[in-house]
Amino acid sequence: MALIAQLSDPHLRDDGADPFHDPAEALLQAFAQIAAMEIKPDAIVLTGDIIDRSAKGYAHALPVLHRAPVPLWPMPGNHDDPAGFRIAFDGWADFAPDHLSFIAPIADLQLIALDSTLEDGRPGLDRSRLDWLADRLGHAQTPSMLALHHPPFATGTPHLDRPGFQDADALSRLIEGSAVCRIIAGHSHRAIQTIWAGCLSSTASAIGHGLSLSLSGAEPHKPVRMAPAFDLHAIGPKGSVSYQIKLDQEPQ
Ligand SMILES: [Fe+2]
User: Fold this and answer.
1) Degrees, nearest 5: CA angle 208-18-148
2) Which of 23, 27, 33, 205 has the smallest C-beta neighbourhood within 10 Å, fewest atoms?
3) Rounded mean pLDDT of 57-82?
4) Domains in the chain, number
5) If you measure from the C-alpha of residue 140 to the centroid of ligand 1, how many angstroms do you get, rounded to a whole number?
């Protein structure tokens, strides 16, 4: 069995102008909770937006991330700077040459971390990333978790769905019948679950600020105060179970 803590969207700023709680403190609180678990997770997967777009580089983020109590796999989001990310996290993962995707073994599971921010900043995949994924899935016998920053599925919220996810159908065709048994993402700053491409697929709440929910799309999409939280995924031969752990409570 693999036990994976998914932390997402800390949006670490370097100007102290966080609109609500301090995400670096929330990240350290999550690390403390993970370190105190009776069965410690095998790894942390950080599903993007490690820094906020307002930040200049990763110098403020790296000392916090180095305090992770278990191996941490960093993924980029649309707020991250691809060139700066590649330099900052050199040696943390074996990134593909022309995007920041990678694979990593976590216990008896394979993590497939797929970079879903296109060069122009839109969500989705291009030929290079689809070919990279097809190549990995073609060889994979090991049960695999696919992690992305952007959810490839429709969330039912117009603000998130309007930009679309380029080549979501091609991704779905690659996944169906493959070794992928679970799909996780971030970006929504909110817990959402659905079945997509035959897999339980979800987004995690943010370590940083929340985002407003408007099912009609009529209300503005804006940062809101929300308890930081992370997900814990237990994936074994009999299936997967996921938990949401909020950080505004006593250690659970
Ligand atoms: Fe985000």
Assistant:
1) 30
2) 33
3) 98
4) 1
5) 30
